[in-house]
């Protein structure tokens, strides 16, 4: 029977049982006594398993002695206790089948030595064979399951919101256009503008920047919902925190205010940190050893402490009086830069912080105006080392106030008619947030560049692989 290596390490098979593992060679070492040691990796867990291959195998000279890093094999043999330190099991091989050799070991980009993370990015199709990308992938998988489990246990319905949309959720104009029009021969209206009526959907359409507006419609019917899918931003940001294509988790809760959304964000983060600490301890140990020595302690601290809540106005005072020289000056009304967010989270509090009640002029049109008339019921969760990982708000539930904001921000009323309907027919206070999934993975693993925590990163000027 074929088995994943993780099942062997999880004691699924007793000593003495015959197993077959499929995987890729990490290393081969030959002893003078005429046996070879193969380290085989299949991605099911952090560690490779060792197979001990005797030289009397029929294909020992022809195949086994030609194995190099990256070759694919099936190895069958008896499971025995490993005399070597660190390993509990090894396979006493009775058969080694080679599926594919590495044609030219000198050109194989993933040799057994340690490569820089930048180098790996240039070989995105082969980098999943490395320890670090394997560990990132398993942690990412664990986090995504934990998110679904968290909401499922709480009775939320997962809604699949559309990728193609006609409305700009954030109103920031950072959308990729979706069109089947012939770019070299665009149809024009009489006024000389592009005639999108002739386009596939009969109107201008884009890749969504957020599923929130659609999620709101379902929250205003099913009460508690979330969407979790890819989102797209054509912002020309060349930073370690921005992708042009990233995944977002967006819960939306009805009969709820900003404080409810903030509590939900805190509970969700703690739940998924716990999951990763218990379910991916092997990978987290690797991150703590190789990438960021705080990787585990940071999460442990988070699950046991209460997140600090602070108003934007107070944060501005702190930043102005802290004596630190920032690249960008701060005064009430400015959008916080990552250096400010990080100062608050890393230096001032030393833990994640939930910043609330931002000036309305730097936030999206749908956020609920506070009684002061100047701020909106918005929140950002700022994490040490990274800055904003969550952005959310209470939504404006009054049609009158919403329309005023749409007009003030010069958005097209017609695009939002369906969204405005929610305020006409049984409107209710509701709130939600968006968690940037890659920022979460980056935070959890300590892997600094967001391009390294998604399989095939998309950023300005780069959409290879
Ligand atoms: O703050 P943002 O723009 O909020 C929204 O889109 C709301 N509609 C969410 C909601 O309330 N349902 O984005 C939310 C999060 C950010 O906090 C950040 O973590 C992440 O999405 N994010 C990005 N992640 C990677 N690359 C980018 N270019 C990102 N832009 C935002
Ligand atoms: Mg934001």
Strand content: 15-25%
How are the strands ordered across the major sheet?
7-11-12-17-16-15-14-13
Number of helices: 12
Task: Report how far the terminal alpha carbons are from each other.
Answer: 35 Å
Strand pairing plus helix content: what structural class? alpha+beta
Helix content: 25-40%
The biggest beta sheet reads: 8 strands, mixed
What is the strand tally?
17
Shape: elongated
Low-confidence parts lasting 5 or more residues at pLDDT below 50? none
Helix-strand pattern: EHEEEEEHHEEEEHEEHHHEHHEEEHHEH
Instruction: Specify Rg, calculated over alpha carbons.
Output: 27 Å
Mean pLDDT score, rounded? Answer: 95
Hetero groups: 4-amino-1,4-dioxobutan-2-aminium adenosine-5'-monophosphate, magnesium ion
EC number: 6.1.1.22
Enzyme class: ligase
Catalytic activity: tRNA(Asn) + L-asparagine + ATP = L-asparaginyl-tRNA(Asn) + AMP + diphosphate + H(+)
Domain Aminoacyl-transfer RNA synthetases class-II family profile: 138-457
Would you kindly provide a written description of the structure presented here, covering whatever features stand out?
The protein has 465 residues and is of the alpha+beta class. The protein has twelve helices and 17 strands. α3 (131-153) crosses α12 (437-445). It binds 4-amino-1,4-dioxobutan-2-aminium adenosine-5'-monophosphate (4AD) and magnesium ion.
Write the layout of secondary structure elements.
Elements: E1 2-3, H1 5-9, E2 18-30, E3 35-41, E4 49-54, E5 72-81, E6 89-100, H2 117-121, H3 131-153, E7 157-158, E8 164-165, E9 177-178, E10 205-207, H4 212-222, E11 224-232, E12 245-254, H5 258-279, H6 281-290, H7 295-304, E13 308-311, H8 312-321, H9 338-349, E14 353-359, E15 375-383, E16 387-394, H10 399-408, H11 417-424, E17 430-436, H12 437-445
Parallel strand pairs: 1-2, 4-6, 7-11, 13-14
Antiparallel strand pairs: 2-3, 2-5, 3-4, 5-6, 8-10, 9-10, 11-12, 12-17, 14-15, 15-16, 16-17
Helix pairs in contact: 3-5, 3-6, 3-12, 5-7
GO molecular function: ligase activity
Subcellular location: Cytoplasm
Protein name: Asparagine--tRNA ligase
């Amino acid at each position: 029977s074929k088995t994943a290596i993780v099942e062997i390490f999880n004691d699924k098979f007793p000593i003495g049982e015959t197993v077959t593992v499929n995987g890729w060679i990490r290393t081969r070492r030959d002893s003078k006594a005429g046996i070879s040691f193969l380290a085989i990796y299949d991605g099911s867990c952090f560690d490779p398993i060792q197979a001990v291959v005797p030289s009397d195998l029929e294909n020992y000279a022809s195949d086994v002695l030609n194995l190099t890093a990256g070759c694919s094999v099936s190895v069958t043999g008896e499971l025995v206790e490993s005399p070597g330190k660190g390993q509990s099991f090894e396979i006493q091989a009775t058969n080694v089948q080679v599926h594919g050799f590495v044609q030219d070991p000198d050109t194989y980009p993933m040799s057994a030595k340690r490569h820089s993370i930048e180098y790996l990015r240039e070989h995105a199709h082969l980098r999943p064979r490395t320890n670090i990308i394997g560990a990132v992938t398993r942690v990412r998988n664990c986090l995504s399951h934990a998110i679904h489990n968290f909401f499922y246990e709480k009775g939320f319905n997962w809604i699949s919101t559309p990728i193609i949309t006609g409305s700009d959720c954030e109103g920031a104009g950072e959308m990729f256009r979706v069109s089947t029009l012939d770019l070299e021969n665009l149809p024009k209206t009489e006024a000389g503008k592009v005639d999108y009526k002739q386009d596939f959907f009969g109107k201008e359409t884009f890749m969504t920047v957020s599923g929130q507006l659609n999620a709101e419609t379902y929250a205003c019917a099913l009460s508690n919902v979330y969407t979790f899918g890819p989102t797209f931003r054509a912002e020309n940001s060349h930073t370690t925190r921005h992708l042009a294509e990233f995944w977002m988790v967006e819960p939306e809760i009805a009969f709820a205010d900003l404080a409810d959304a903030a509590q939900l964000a805190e509970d969700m983060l703690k739940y998924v940190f716990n999951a990763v600490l218990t379910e991916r301890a092997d990978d987290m140990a690797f991150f703590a050893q190789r990438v960021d020595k705080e990787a585990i302690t940071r999460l442990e601290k988070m699950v046991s402490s209460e997140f600090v809540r602070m108003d934007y106005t107070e944060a501005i005072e702190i930043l102005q009086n802290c004596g630190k020289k920032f690249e960008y000056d701060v005064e009430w009304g400015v959008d916080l830069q990552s250096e400010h967010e990080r100062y608050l989270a890393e230096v001032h509090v030393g833990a994640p912080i939930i910043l609330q009640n931002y000036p309305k002029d730097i936030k999206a049109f749908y956020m609920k105006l506070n009684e002061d008339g100047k701020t909106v019921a918005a929140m950002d969760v700022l994490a040490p080392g990274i800055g904003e990982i969550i952005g959310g708000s209470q939504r404006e539930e009054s049609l009158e106030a919403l329309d005023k904001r749409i007009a003030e921000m010069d958005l097209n009323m017609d695009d939002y008619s369906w969204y405005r309907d929610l305020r006409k027919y049984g409107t209710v206070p509701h709130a939600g947030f968006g968690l940037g999934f890659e920022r979460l993975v980056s935070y959890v693993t300590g892997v600094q560049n967001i391009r390294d925590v998604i399989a095939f990163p998309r950023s300005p000027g780069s959409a290879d692989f």
